[in-house]
Design goal:
The complex is a heterotetramer, with two copies of chain A (about 325 residues) and two copies of chain B (about 325 residues). Chain A has about 325 residues and is of the alpha/beta class. Helices cover about 35% and strands about 20% of the residues of chain A. Chain B has a six-stranded parallel beta sheet with strand order 2-1-3-4-8-7, sandwiched between helices. A two-stranded antiparallel ribbon of chain B has the order 5-6. Classes of the chains: A alpha/beta (about 325), B alpha/beta (about 325). Bound molecules: thiamine diphosphate (2 copies) and magnesium ion (MG) (2 copies).
Chain lengths: ~325, ~325, ~325, ~325
């Protein structure tokens, strides 16, 4: 992080500030989605925006995820810079045609003539006691789709800088916010800044093991790193920040250095993000690895409601710690 | 006394019994939700819940017209539908608290209660998400010749979801026995429905070949009468119907939605509560018609309240599932 | 001669010019498709294509009412829309053959022709897939105050897709300048629309607050008149409209759909071709009104045919993109 | 394959035979989708079924993929055994909510009380000159979702046996058919048989390298194996047949034996099937592998229309051959 004057903001405040700044900067930026105006979304992330920018730029929609996402595509092609709000990541299921068959492909199919500078903001993450249809982390699907960019901030600082970059990007960007993180605080510079896509961030330097973690799992990994330190294991924690573009180099170089790697992501462990990143590392650092790359993701079950069940479906600090310890032969 | 009079007397008794059952069911729903709110305020409930208070006449009026084997699908605001279809409160509370004794062994929670024994195909936390399921159940009924009817409950917010029109069209084409029951409580979360709903709601049924009508959702007798007619028609093979019930939720969108003035006035809430309360008005009618009296009805209320308290107690003391159960029930 | 007569004479000349342009455009579409079919039979075209023959009056009548800067979205059966909006046949043929000179540098093919220069937001191979895009373009127009109108072309098959109703509702709520043009050619692939469409088509607009009307899609003057009115209204801020055009595709669903008797009769095809051909009937009218004569019109036809042949030649000899280009244009 | 009387059937015929047999066996089995009745689908896979079983059991639907997939879920819960037809795999985008938030979760969310014995048949595969919205292979998305099973037959024999198993399964099954394979012929027994899920099939035994290939890529891998044989490399080609459940054991044992492995799949190479399978092998056979597991999938671009472009987006025999040769140090 650059050495500048900072304040503590929550994750939600950082998002809001990014939106407000971009809306002031560029009158084409507008927001639409369900209960985004006066309600400011159920998570209150957008509170205050409609008061500043008016209902012409912060627009409540009906419960029509496919419809208004499609409108986002058309609006983006024709001069607006829409930020589409999909309340829960689980509802991406309803927007897949618009996102994947339309937004992601327009530029390519038109031979590069039309562009879709649209941002779709949505959430991920479990442990909110919301059960199987309000707890999924479906970013792997979008990362699989050429034409989309996929952003997964893990701190208020990253959230703000990455969202500003997303809004300025000429392509459709899917921006995932961990809903359990909205109240988490962190330093954010007073001055304007942006963060480039495809640049992983080393959240903690270390020599003994590389832990790649995304979004909600970054704090978990950092917590595990603290526990590891106590048993003399110096973990490096890396946050790719964008799953696409993916900063393969930073991940591979770290794994080469430490010779051991884990990947922790809140999406399902199977056919998801951990498989891709583990493969990239296993291939790129093959001759340096002392042990197989360890993957940890959500348990391969729909997320259950009951707290004692839900809690075992998502990787925890303790589990990451133990897996890392085993990987380092200290278990 | 002629046989005919005897018959009509018996009918009247039966009818009274039915009114009293409907009364009890409405009170059950209200008391159930009362307890839910308390569980929430006492921080005993994981997550949130969407209360059905104020809308009792819809679920009860509709379900009274159904057989136990008939199907329903429900919503995020589903407790009322479950109770009206005959679910038992103790297992419902257990589910809300994530206990193993719950209807879904704790896996579903408030928004996913399902119960094959009462034909409840499940509540659904995706707005409009159960329209396909209900219509598919009607397809089974028709193909298998079982005579079952399926009722799809949804809030007027689901009118925004295209899938509803896709399946209405199919239900009309295939003459399926399904009733789409729209609970128009005026709000979708924090937005008045007039801001999200253009055109004419009833026409959204007829445009797709589905017979449509509306009813005062606060009048349980009117809802029941309409439901009976439509359910009978569907059972006879006349095809689907769309029933729009004008109603109101007294509480917030969910238990945590306390400050509501930015999207609706206290006065509006007050008016519905005082003038259009489904239980109050039904009570007055029962007494007026001499079908019951205040003390009997009050007695039922106390009984139900005690029953609910016991059910909550059961749920609170019931054990949680064990962590290993998280991996069960993924595949049949 | 008074000034008024002079004016009206000038108007008449202008009008005649316009009719002739519409005639030429319709002939262009027909001749274009003739060539497409030939490319297919000569095995020169990769994949398949969906011919617009028989439906020319719809695209031409609508697009005549549009400004070059107005937007359209198109379908899998999109060649007619592109031509009517002003695309040049040589680059279209090049696209159909996957050549670099094509509108999409060969990446889109028949089903994805797009062209910013003529406001063509692109054909779409997902049935109903462009409804959101067209409506979003109308949102841009309204917010940016550009006065542009968006036209969303789709076949009646798209009436099965829920997203259409989602965006119609939004367009009505937000009073967006978008015209939904339904080309009802009676068939969705191999199924008559009556088997897939319950209720009332026009009501599917009005139920969502969208003004709806229907027109004879084989009569280019009627289509143009309706389009002009609706486009004007939209441009003035009166909101969206839904126009259903009764039309017919002469050929198969795609160039390979040769044996069609199992879903429609040769007699039906013959009747449309002889009695309701849009070009034939418009030709007769032009001659009858003394706005043109057989030889002039025949001359245009020959001219257009030669133009199309040259365009095909251009496309056939144009180079393919190089393999490396596969990785270009994924991101802007 | 068992030693019994066989005939040559096309892939399409094998599918049709499986459906016809199951429909005769169980009157609850029914089919619905677009143009499935008299038209027998655009690929003519279902030709003849409506004539035998009538329009009550082979039902043409409107173009309403979300709607009729949802109806499949409800019908399956209540006594029918629907086989839902989604013409092109690209249209899965429209069904994701019904498949993922409904079908896959009903059993779990209801605590095991309701079941969804539904099959969704769809297609995958490019090189048909159909461009970006009719050429995708999106099976990775579904493999990522707990509650679904995902089947990817590569021969007429497998197609028939696996489809019969799918129809008898009590869970939602997504069944992917490579549309370029419909006319491919292969031996199919006269006698009834089924093939269990989760049992990989060794399509070719070999000692030097393991090539895991799915669906359309199995023939490509076998072709490459023939080329490899000519340069003295003996390749083992394994077809997992179902990506979920996945027969990890067979894959790992083979890789342990050969010490070199490749994964070839027609889905996008990024965040897809190859990442998962490569990770499983890299972890399971870590101490036996002589080289990193090589992955080959579709190029990370929307599928282009133009033949010379489209042809380079999908792995070919020659490319698989060359990659295998390099992996074996013979390149
Ligand atoms: C597809 C989808 N979009 C959004 C939501 C979030 N959400 C939950 S309830 C609700 C409002 C529903 O309104 P309505 O259908 O009228 O039901 P009510 O709450 O009034 O009973 C919304 C937007 C959701 N659950 N599903
Ligand atoms: C979402 C979707 N479902 C199915 C298809 C396959 N398909 C292509 S064209 C077509 C029929 C379209 O009929 P209609 O909309 O009436 O247009 P027409 O071909 O008659 O012009 C179908 C089903 C598709 N392209 N997209
Ligand atoms: Mg409501
Ligand atoms: Mg049609």
């Amino acid at each position: 992080m650059p050495e500048v004057a900072t304040r503590e903001l929550t994750f939600a405040q950082a998002i809001r500030e990014a939106l407000a700044e971009e809306m002031r900067r560029d009158s084409r930026v507008c927001i639409f989605g369900e209960d985004v105006a006066e309600a400011g979304t159920p998570f209150k992330v957008l509170s205050g925006l409609v008061e500043e920018f008016g209902r012409e730029r912060v627009m409540d929609t009906p419960i029509s995820e496919a419809g208004f996402t499609g409108m986002g595509v058309g609006a983006a092609m024709t001069g607006l810079r829409p930020v589409v709000d999909i309340m829960f990541g689980d509802f991406l299921t309803l927007t897949m045609d618009q996102l994947v068959n339309q937004a992601a492909k327009v530029h390519y199919m038109s031979g590069g003539t039309w562009k879709v500078p649209m941002v779709l903001r949505t959430t991920l993450g479990a442990t909110r006691r919301s059960a199987a249809q309000h707890s999924q982390s479906l970013h792997a699907w979008l990362s699989h789709v050429p034409g989309l960019k996929v952003v997964m901030p893990s701190t208020p600082y990253d959230a703000k800088g990455l969202l500003k970059t997303a809004i300025r990007d000429e392509n459709p960007v899917v921006f995932f916010e961990d809903k359990m993180m909205y109240k988490q605080k962190g330093p954010v510079p007073e001055e304007e800044y942006t963060i480039p896509f495809g640049a992983a961030d080393v959240k903690r330097k270390g020599e003994d093991i590389t832990i790649v973690a995304t979004s909600s799992m970054v704090q978990v990994a950092l917590g595990a790193a603290d526990l590891l330190e106590k048993i003399g294991v110096d973990a490096e924690v890396i946050d790719p920040r964008t799953t696409w573009p993916l900063d393969e180099k930073t991940l591979i170089e770290s794994a080469k250095k430490t010779s051991r790697a884990m990947v922790v992501d809140e999406g399902y462990g199977r056919y998801g993000v951990t498989g891709e990143i583990a493969s990239v590392i296993a291939e790129g650092a093959f001759y340096n690895l002392e042990a197989p790359v360890k993957r940890m993701g959500a348990m391969h079950v729909p997320i259950p409601f009951s707290p004692p069940l839900e809690d075992v479906t998502v990787p925890t600090e303790q589990e990451v710690f133990e897996a890392a310890r085993t990987l380092c032969g200290k278990g | 006394m002629t046989i005919a009079t005897e018959q009509s007397k018996a009918n009247a008794a039966l009818k009274t019994e039915q009114w009293m059952r409907m009364y009890r069911r409405m009170v059950m729903i209200r008391e159930f939700e009362e307890q839910v709110n308390e569980l929430y305020t006492r921080a005993l409930m994981p997550g949130l819940a969407h209360l059905y208070v104020g809308e009792e006449a819809v679920a009860v009026g509709i379900c009274e017209a159904l057989q136990p084997t008939d199907y329903i699908t429900s919503t995020h605001r589903g407790h009322g539908h479950c109770v009206a279809k005959g679910a038992s409160p103790d297992r419902m509370f257990a589910e809300l608290l994530g206990k193993e004794a719950g209807y879904c062994r704790g896996k579903g929670g408030s928004m996913h209660i399902a119960d094959p024994a009462t034909g409840n195909l499940g509540a659904n936390a995706i707005v409009g998400g159960s329209a396909g399921i209900a219509t598919g159940a009607a397809l089974s009924s028709k193909r298998l010749g079982t005579g079952q009817v399926a009722v799809c409950f949804f809030g007027e917010g689901a009118l925004g979801q295209g899938v509803l029109y896709e399946v209405m069209n199919l239900a009309a084409l295939w003459k399926l026995p399904v009733i789409y029951v729209c609970e128009n409580n005026l709000y979708t979360e924090y937005t008045h429905y007039s801001e999200t709903t253009a055109g004419d709601i009833l026409a959204r049924g007829t445009a797709f070949g589905v017979h449509a009508e509306s009813v005062d959702g606060q009048d349980v007798r009117a809802v029941y009468a309409a439901a009976q007619r439509l359910v009978d028609g569907a059972r006879k093979g006349e095809g689907p119907a769309f029933l729009v019930c004008a109603t109101y939720r007294y509480s917030g969108h969910h238990v945590g939605d306390i400050n509501r003035e930015y999207y609706r006035s206290k006065q509006e809430e007050q008016e519905w509560k005082t003038k259009r309360d489904p239980i109050k008005n039904f009570t007055a009618w029962l007494i007026d018609q001499k079908l019951s009296d205040a003390s009997t009805l009050g007695g039922i209320q106390s009984e139900v309240r005690a029953e609910m308290k016991a059910a909550v107690e059961f749920a609170i003391t019931a054990p949680y599932p064990t962590a290993e159960q998280a991996e069960e029930d993924v595949y049949a």
